[in-house]
Amino acid sequence: MTRYKYGFKDPENYVFRLTKGLSKEIVEEISWLKMEPEWMRKFRLNAYEIFLKKNLPSWGPDLSDLNFDDIVYYVKPSDRKSSSWEDVPEYIRNTFERLGIPEAERRLLAGLSAQYESEMVYHKLKESWKKKGVIFVDTDTAVKEYPELVREYIGTVVSPSDNKFSALNSAVWSGGSFIYIPEGVSVEIPLQAYFRINSQNMGQFERTLIIAEPGSYVHYIEGCTAPIYSTYSLHSAVVEVVVKKGARVRYTTIQNWSYNVYNLVTKRAVAYDEAIVEWIDGNLGSKVTMKYPSVYMRGKGSKAELLSIAYAGKGQFQDVGAKVLHLAPYTFSRITSKSISKDGGRNSYRGLVYVDPCATKSNVSLRCDTLLLDNQSRSDTYPIIKIENSNTSLSHEASVSKIDDEQLFYLESRGLPKDEASALIVRGFIEPISKELPFEYAVELNRLIRLQLRGDIG
Amino acid sequence: MGRGVILELKNLHTEVEQKEILKGVNLQLKRGRIYALMGPNGAGKSSLAYTIMGHPRFKVSRGEIIFNGENITNLTPSERAQRGIFLAFQYPIEISGITLFNFLRLIFNTRVDDRKSPMEFSKFLKSKLEVLDLNEKFISRYLNEGLSGGEKKKSEVLQMVIVNPELVILDEIDSGLDIDAMKIVSNTINNFFNEDKTILIITHYQRFLDYVKPDNIFVMFDGKILASGGYELIDLIEREGYETLEKRREHDEI
What we know:
The complex is a heterodimer. Chain A contains twelve helices and 24 strands. By secondary structure, chain A is an alpha/beta fold. Chain A folds into two domains: about 15-290, no CATH class; about 405-458, no CATH class. In chain A, strand 3 and strand 4 (about 120-125) form a beta hairpin. Chain B has nine helices and ten strands. Chain B has helices spanning about 45-55, 75-85, 100-110, 120-130, 135-140, 150-165, 180-190, 205-210, 230-250; strands spanning about 5-15, 20-30, 35-40, 60-65, 70, 85-90, 165-170, 200, 215-220, 225-230. The longest helix of chain B has 19 residues, at about 230-250. The model of chain B has no long low-confidence stretch (mean pLDDT about 90). The interface of A and B includes residues 404, 418, 425 and 430 of A.
């Protein structure tokens, strides 16, 4: 049995596919294909110039295998975007059925979008939320239908010049979600986006923008998978979240890319007065992930909660972490990071906590726990803490543990087979994270981890 | 079920890192009986319990463990548990992030064909909790984490009741219990016991045996069963200590 069960692939009967490689012409062609306004075309071209000047990150996993000329930057699988699964091409619909997505939509969600290669192929928000003024569309549609909103916010939280991959995404982005929650509206059930890469040497560059007006609430969930190929694919998203006064946004990711995907993502939120941002980040798949969800606490009394769980199995490197910047008084942040390494897998926690001189009476708590399942695996932590304010309260804990033989024996003596016993210990280890997920997703997370733990022979 | 032999140890030798721990244990336990196993520290009582349960550190170098007529010497701990052996640990292990409730339901469903939903199980559990003077809050805590010594022992006995095994080994279940808890725990054990069950109590103290009365007493010394008999053995130990017992055995006085 293989530990990755979403590795099936579809034939590539695409409407349009760019040739490999990246150039100014490619960037212009993407913009032209999308019939974009001039300001967006300029945004892209400017970002492309920045991309050329920026270097790859000097730290973290080795990215030297990544060849930007060997990637296809835009693939359009279908002629239309549908709001009914009936209208989605059958083979794509079947793929999402196999992933259980329409089922989840019916049972659990206020809205769903599904991206296949470069484009959203399905998008639907339940009528009752539309009536309250909630906007949930793909970002390409948003550029056409809500240009003022997009123009006002895009690139303000994550600038194209932030890093090489934010520049790349800004130049070639396609798809992603655009969410707008009007003042005082609380979307009680989650919105979800699902991202699927199907072909090899493909680059998926979705761009997500969430704007939560004062006093509003939304929980956004994203999931992702891809087939297994011997060559790599690249997923490089940019996510920008604006959380205004007293609003709360919870952003949950269950990343389960196949083991040939480079997942290099920039995610950041800005929190204004009394706002709450929660990033819940599960990284199970991919070859290499570099992702450090961030919160810039600009408003007095704002809060950031970051929970992450990373699993690194054979050949995987999860370089993940969190960044919190306390830029106003009475701000509060709590980071909980859990990582599990097995079969030579490697995890790094890389984080930044910064407390500005003006951020008086702030509160920071940071906890990193690592579980090593064997001796070949590895885990490192690189926490940077810069506190420039003397009345900050800080707590910092870290632990490294192994699955203990006595724990295993105890559980086995109650009738649990050994693999179930270790899965149970792992489940307990990640419980602080999984209890924050909606029930069905917690079950799914536990199931995926169990699959990972078992599949080492396959 | 008859009064047959449930467990038989035949010339059982075990090693831990090449050091011999059990040095030829012969023992027969019958269905419907309660036994006590006594002996000084280091005699091998807990080692015997671990060996019966299949702890991987205790390597059987010679001899056999026969349970219900089946040679289980090479079975895994979970296979032994599934056949009906239960060990209540002297020092129960803590597992973070797993509530006692979820764990109890999991081990119940592992042993029993009639799986219960959380709701059904909660109902089933209620009366068991009352008997042990435990509340709902107790089972929402993580498995043994941060429990007092006495609470951990109650958690072991609760697990025993839920799993409903045929053979129970209680490794110093009385240590860490105050007198009230001792009464509650022994009551639960007595209620659990019937003619189809077998209980082996490992203890240092006579006191617990006043609450759960054994039919037979074994005395262990230096990796072997030194003597077996009735209550008179306890008096002998209390009076003269294990060393004298050992010497008297050498002279065939007992």
